[in-house]
Task: inverse folding
């Protein structure tokens, strides 16, 4: 019996990217709306109490994200359609084609271009994370799900689960990518700080490094970040971040722990890495944990080469539980719909 609240909003279904542009080729999207309904149905069948997400003010959201990013996501699709790109050349989703990288600007300030097709790359860092008519609504609803789950824990609950879709851990302070728009886990961690937790640990078990969460808290010591993920040095997203020598900076020095593992790693190596992350988190004496709960490290998932089993995920949940502090679980990845719900229930049941 799954004895924890699961927070959900039907508005998370409004985001329908329908495709990804990968190496210049339009491919089917894997971050589909059905992910959220599969998760909802699985946890409800396992006994979780479904709780409706409630609307929250933007305080915690603005504490981790640049106001320019928020305004861009809220308006760019409307601007895109107003400019006629849905008719000519027939692209109804916002897809950037130019990015203001240091290689382009060489120290010059980043500006807001007049042309919306140029502005599309102002805050986005890949071509795969498309913005459609319901993207902002869904991303904001996912934030509300995470905040509602944080409220339940701040009020004395031992654990709560937020069915967040789209996911969030690749969203940086002023950027989006990797199918992520707003960083739900970071917002939940900040909300727990606002609610009185002196120290919060974010533990990320998604198959890919949460470069966005790392970037948000990299110079802070009050919110630690630890991640186990497939080695970006072996050619896996996010490619440029997630290495073991990234340990934090300034007030956050020593508060960041990355444990990259090689492709093909199964339960034994995975659990050894999760244990290392949990030991590092415990050393900072957190009063609450935010679990970035991705299950795409499972064998058969199309988005990673790791081989974690259901038993491995159940053992992972037990390691998180044994930290002995309340947990807000925020959903991230997991793209194999036939096993997505069961793997998630395995983790949550152990919590």
Result:
């Amino acid at each position: 019996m799954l004895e924890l609240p699961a927070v959900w909003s039907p508005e998370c279904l409004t985001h329908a990217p329908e495709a990804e542009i990968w190496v210049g080729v339009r491919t089917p999207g894997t971050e589909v709306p059905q992910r959220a309904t599969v998760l909802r149905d699985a946890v409800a069948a396992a006994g979780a109490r479904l709780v409706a997400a409630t609307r929250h003010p933007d305080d915690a959201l603005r504490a981790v994200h640049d106001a320019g990013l928020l305004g861009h996501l809220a308006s760019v699709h409307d601007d895109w359609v107003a400019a006629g790109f849905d008719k000519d050349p027939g692209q109804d989703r916002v897809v950037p084609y130019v990015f203001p990288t240091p290689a382009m600007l060489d120290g010059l300030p980043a500006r807001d271009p007049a042309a919306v097709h140029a502005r599309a790359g102002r805050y986005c860092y890949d071509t795969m994370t498309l913005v459609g008519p319901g993207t902002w609504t869904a991303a904001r609803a996912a934030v509300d799900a995470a905040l509602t789950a944080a409220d339940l824990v701040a009020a004395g609950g031992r654990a709560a689960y937020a069915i967040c879709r789209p996911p969030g851990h690749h969203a940086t302070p002023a950027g989006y990518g990797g199918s992520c728009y707003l960083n739900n886990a970071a917002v939940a961690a900040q909300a727990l700080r606002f609610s009185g937790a002196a120290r919060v640990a974010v533990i990320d078990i998604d198959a890919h490094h949460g470069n966005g969460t790392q970037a948000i808290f990299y110079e802070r010591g009050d919110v630690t970040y630890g991640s186990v993920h497939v080695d970006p040095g072996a050619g896996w997203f996010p490619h440029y971040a997630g290495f073991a020598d990234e340990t934090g900076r300034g007030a956050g020095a020593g508060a960041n722990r990355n444990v990259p593992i090689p492709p093909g790693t199964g339960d034994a190596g995975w659990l050894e890495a999760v244990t290392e992350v949990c030991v590092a988190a415990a050393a900072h004496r957190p009063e609450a944990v935010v679990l970035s709960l991705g299950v795409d490290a499972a064998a058969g998932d199309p988005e990673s080469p790791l081989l974690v089993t259901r038993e491995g995920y159940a053992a992972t949940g037990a390691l998180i539980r044994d930290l002995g502090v309340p947990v807000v679980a925020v959903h991230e990845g997991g793209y194999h719909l036939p096993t997505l719900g069961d793997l998630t229930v395995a983790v949550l049941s152990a919590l």
In short: The longest helix spans residues 135-154. The mean pLDDT is 97. The chain has eleven helices and ten strands.
